[in-house]
What does this fold into?
Amino acid sequence: MTVHEFVKKIFFIEILQGLALTFKHLINPSVTRQYPTEKRESFPGARGLHALVRDSESGKERCVGCGLCAAMCPSQCIHIYTSEDENHKKIVDRYEIEVLRCVYCALCVEACPYAALVLTDHYEYAGYTRDEFYYTKEMLLENWDKYMAGDKGMNYIKNFWRPRSSDFPAPASPGGEERKVS
Ligand code: SF4
Ligand code: SF4
It folds into this structure.
């Protein structure tokens, strides 16, 4: 045993350090929030309940039913059912998310080429049955109206919908100069 270790043992240095830390926390104000009476402000980009973007012109979903979000989803909780109209245009008959299986990774948002799906900042949802958390297309569109109305939704897409082409600068040409992209 070294002298340093011996001194630490004799004078209970580690116990005193532990007690000092405890007393420090007794004096400092607590950071625990008394939810639900005290709530944290939600912040932009928070990953809460899903919403399907409602196109402002047509009033319908922006989703075209390509299925990329469902293919990317690691929880496989997105289900899309499509059909064709008489002009061979794809129609999204059903778009459903099993919210209880979601891990809020936002890969579906990133995968969507049309910015048609977002995660809202709404996090206070609870229920008594699993069925309540099976969100249909209509429910997801309602979520857009409720939680992303006005500029909020468009600001979300502007700030958090990634990747964009601007995230990938043009690679340098073999000569060392940056290649021009028209
Ligand atoms: S956030 Fe992740 S887990 Fe949830 S639906 Fe999207 S891809 Fe699936
Ligand atoms: S990736 Fe976008 S457009 Fe394609 S099905 Fe999903 S939400 Fe719809």
Q: What stands out?
A: The chain has a mean pLDDT of 88. The two ends are 73 Å apart (CA to CA).
